Fold these 2 entries.
Entry 1:
Amino acid sequence: MFDRAGALREKFTSPHLPKLVGPSGFDGPFAVLPNGGILVAEWEYPDIYIVRFSVDGHYESEVKLDFANFFPYQLAVFPSGELLLSGIESKRRSHPVDSAYTAIYDKSGRLMKRLQLEGDEEIDRAIELRDSRYAWAAGQGNFAVSSGSVSTGEDGNVYLERSTSPAIVYIISSSGDVIRKLNVTPSTSGDRPLAMQLSKGKLAFVFDGWVGRRSSGRPSLSVMDASNGDKLEDVGAESGVHMSGLACYASESERFTFVTMTTAKRVEITTAEKLRDKSLAKPALAQLLRI
């Protein structure tokens, strides 16, 4: 945890760290709790632990999921305490494709419901055919899941995004029901999301095109209506604002926070706000603070 000036305040050190840094370790997702603490999904083959830390960085508790035959990529917490996890199933001889896995767990780690999301089977079939939108080769990789995002909304639902073009967002209740599905179209056909953040009924996406295994390096930012996926505006950026690492979006103040890694291996945090110059062809982000 860093303060506003960029100084390190707290470290969240896993009790599983020696095992996690080994060859079987996995950099799992995390979720911020309402009180400022965090949950981390730690994959220690063949198990997944949900580890809880207090706001001051201290380890508090953990639970082990009762079904863990998948690699976790997204973790979200419902206000009522249930957990949504999404990731990629471990390969089996009968099913060699890196297929999506999404499920709801209770606070104790008990599996409550596995979700079959409309569209995931279509992605599986595309991966089998070596579709470069989702895989390196036949059955290898699932970008739609591994590059996806997740946020918990003020409405108590979880917004799970698949990194496809158009992007797909599933709004999911704590009981595991898909309330609605959004198709979010980028400004440039074929671009897919690098990041998604949710604030007060608005979704902010950073889209980018892909050339082989690399991004085009020309990301664009769009703000959408979270109720129907309609585009509200496209936002450009002044020189010096690197949009690829969108970490936070505040819709009321129209501020965006980006986190990137510099060539010197230092974390760089940039806060930007939308310019209110009506002479601009479209809104642009101006840098407020860089640390």
Note: The helical segments are 17-20, 120-128, 143-146.
Entry 2:
Amino acid sequence: MARPVSYAKGEAIVRHGDPARGAYVLGEGEAEAVVMQPGGDDLVVARFAAGAMFGEMSLVESGVVTATVRATSPVSGWFVATEDFRALVARSDPPAVRLQHAVTLVLADKLAALNVQLLACAAPEDLPARRAPRGIDPLAGVPRSRSAPFDVAGFLPKLAFFEHFAADEIDTVASRSGYVEVARGGGIFAADTPSSSVFVVLRGAVEVIMVLGERERRIAVVGPGQMVGFIGVLRENRHANWAFARESSLLLDIPAGAFREIYFGHERASTRLRAAVQRNLLASMAHTNRSLTRLLAQAELAAS
């Protein structure tokens, strides 16, 4: 599916503003991504070495190149065109599943790196850390209902999570799930607890926070049609953060085992679920990028 490519030192691999046509994987050499600052100077925003991938967002959603990537040494590698990638993952055979999951992990790693940068910035909206116990599941023992408190048959297909799902594919996910209602301010998961479920917000909103000493930072607000807890489930890690209901919320609770079974499966619902995870990651990255840009701009103004 991939075709070999090579570039001389100093050569542009992709240019800012051009249509994004696919992803690149570096086999040998190094490259850097640069954006132009308002004063006209170049700012290096990322560096890539052998084994790195960039442009992977275009495999999920069409768009334009957001930074110029230049070879800083002779580079060789492979180019994966968007249309070829989508044709392959639609087949749902084992190589396609592994490739789609590999792209998901690349996106998850980049989101984690963005969050590290975000947390390194001072934020005036930080609050005193709430007294949230670590290592105790706030929903332990809370019953899940097999049926929603309202008719969701016509509602679920309208959610962004189920975009592109057929009715029977939605049933595949919903039939393995339960429903749980959480009052405003109630905990959904806590740091150091097992990632035992993926939650899809059906009604209300969920905030994800990280505690930094005596203060807490809100790192995400998740509304209807978005997921929380899925990265920990896919990596089989414990939660690193806390999640609370920002307002009274109804959640679709997909148990971790069921989520992984569908996600790594070879049926149509599995392909849809993997794509839904990637769309959710892109939305989270866009939110984090906006927050990071805002905080950096505030810091620059304060220093001037």
Note: DSSP finds six helices and 15 strands in the chain.
